[in-house]
Amino acid sequence: MEDTKIAENKTTTTTTTMTNNDSNSSSNSEIDNSVDNLGGGDIEDLSNYILSKIDESSTATGRPARKYSEQDTSTPEWFDHKKHFFILSFSGKPIYSRYGDEVALNTFMASLSAMSSFVESSNDELRYITAGNYQFVFIQKNPLNLVCIANTGEPYQMIKQQLEYIHALIISVLTQSNIKAVFEAKYDLRDLLGGTDKYLDNFIHQTNSDFSILLNSVNCLRLNNNIRNSITNILSNRKCDSLLFSYLISGNKLISSVKHKKTPSLKSQDIHIVMNYVLSTSSFRESESWIPICLPNYNNTGFLHLYICYLYADVCLLLFSNQAESFYQLSEIKTMISKDLEQESIVDELNRSVALHDYTTSFTDVPNLLHFLYKNRSSNYSTYPIFSPPYSIHKKEKKRLFRLYQHIINHVNNSSNKPHKYYYHTSATETIIVAISNHHELYATFSPLETKKNVFESFTLLLQWITKDNSIIIQ
Amino acid sequence: MTKAKIDLKVVLLGYASVGKTCIVTRYTSGQFGDTHTTIGGAFSSKRVVVGETEVLLGIWDTAGTERYQAVNVSYYRRANAAIVCYDLTNRESWDKVTFWAEELTQNEPDIEIYIVGTKLDLIQQGDIKAVPEEEVKQTARRYKAHIFETSSRTGENVSLLFQTIAEDFCKRTNNGTTPVNTNPSNVVNVNTQTQKKKSGGCC
Q1: Would the pLDDT of A26 be above 70?
Q2: Which of A58, A187, A286 to mutate to test the interface with B (most CBs of B within 10 A)?
Q3: A219-259: pLDDT as tens digits
Q4: Residue among B36, B38, B74 whose CB faces A324 most closely
Q5: So what's the ipTM on this one?
Q6: B40 in contact with A at a CB cutoff of 8 Å?
């Protein structure tokens, strides 16, 4: 199980394919071409024409065409994407590609499969390959291979964690037992995964930008502690035999959660999977929904049944049950919860808080602070401010800070030596100070020009503020 | 005298992307737009009045994708009516109609089946029907099913479909062929439904 690095010369062939494939460059999408043909035509005509094109493509497949679906290894644009994700079977059968049509990428995926089976044949496991600026990260999850190819410079552990999140999402749709059964019966997994592309696309995007996933935690909605307690009380009072967990969320933030039975709590990874479903499906907003879902960390062999209903514009109630028949019972519980919330006049306060929950560093009154991440290690809840200048101005800057945090989090948590208690990073662009204890992790960002003394003082103030303020994180 | 209130459970079944969710959205909110692949099932309800009776339609919209076929049983169980949809322009979606009709007659013999061809507007714009009308009629006869053609884009026949389902159901309950669910509250009570055995029979 040791790290396997295939020698550079073996991978150079792959690298050349990634860069020198300009031979077939006649690859503008159909719509682009037709726009050129129409020249300086009437704008309305043009938009109608494009609309009809989109209509055609969507009636052919039944759904609007996926972005980048026309790209493959013969189109140079395909090689411009910074981060590719692939899912294939152990035998190399394509299942999913983040960019491009997986069937057209058949041969490419076969070569990925060859790479991992080459190493496997010597009873080892291929973890990653470095080729120039590109990193190929592999995880093997029988019977699936997941591969990420990235030139983003992210640490291996972080990419691996993202691949594991994506694998968990596949399990949540099908369960591990079903996936194995499908492969034993030699079916095409894609038939069963139909329509899952969108959830995978969204989840990949999420793993690339969400601090709570980065910290392996659940982000809390900022809410007055008394209101939060009343909500938790209401949730725990309204229960029935089959009800396991009640969750109240807003977007991908947790308002309150209750565990009704003596079962293990839900892991943050499972909660992120559920939140991704809820956020990616606009139709949940319109009616009550009842879906089978597998939570891989809870039980990867069977389905739980999830009742989903939006109580207010941005407040969604999730009830997890172990019985397929309990929909109407849970629907009654929802009605009672919503009555309780109204009676105790929590609704207005809750909706006001949901609208204003974001906060910036200035809310903390800590001088010189640019940004911070806080995670409670025992509850796995996290909180962090929204970006403020200089990060809020450019998307690029946000991404850069995200990538920097990735490296620092990786360094303090995954280093082979004893875990760090404190860590001080300074570069031309920022200073980041980290404190890790059994109870929490705190990462705080300052300007690189700040003196060490100021940084330390502010850091202490910030830690005090977080422990004192009981609204930003679930206590 | 207060109006009699009855609950009616309707389930939508059919091949992926035929427009099941669109029918429901058109009917319940009067809108037509982008929908996403349904996962699991979605429940919505609407009140309709048939003569002196107030019918609370509980509509179950199900996922058409193959992986949910096994769980769809739990959505159509004890349903009073099933809308089995196919895309008028897509032959493949028609093949699934027989599958569902067969499964429904096997498992829920009392259920009233409505075979609904969707995307009628495409036919009106000149597309050719993928399934000959005679074939549809034959299948409908075999399963004692009703036939509808709807367009969620224009709204054509959508309300009519649900109104007919409600009226048919009232007729059946008044004839005494199906027990009346006279639950005074508007909440569907699963327990009382399970206790009442349906007597079978179809008009």
Answers
A1: no
A2: A286
A3: 999 999 999 999 999 999 999 999 999 999 999 999 999 99
A4: B74
A5: 0.76
A6: yes
Half-sphere exposure of A286 (CA within 13 A, CB side): 24
If one counts every other C-beta atom within 10 angstroms of the C-beta of residue B54, the result is: 16
Please check whether residues A300 and A402 belong to one and the same domain.
no
Domain with residue A382: its CATH number is: 3.30.450.30
Instruction: Determine, yes or no, domain membership for A152.
Output: yes
Q: At A173, which CATH number? A: 3.30.450.70
Which of A286, A303, A332 lies closest to B25 in CB terms?
A286
Residues A185-211 have pLDDT tens digits of 777 788 777 778 888 999 999 999 999
B53-62 vs B4-14, strand pairing mode: parallel
pTM value is 0.81
Burial of A136 (0-12, 13-18, 19+ CB in 10 A): buried
Looking at the fold, whether A270 and A141 belong to one and the same domain comes out as no
Query: Least CB-CB distance to B44: which of A62, A195, A286?
Result: A286
- Return residues 54-73 of B near A (CB < 8 Å): 61, 65-68, 71
Long-range CB contact pairs, A334-337, < 8 A, 24+: A334/A288, A334/A307, A334/A309, A335/B187, A336/A238, A337/A234, A337/A235, A337/A238, A337/A246, A337/A311
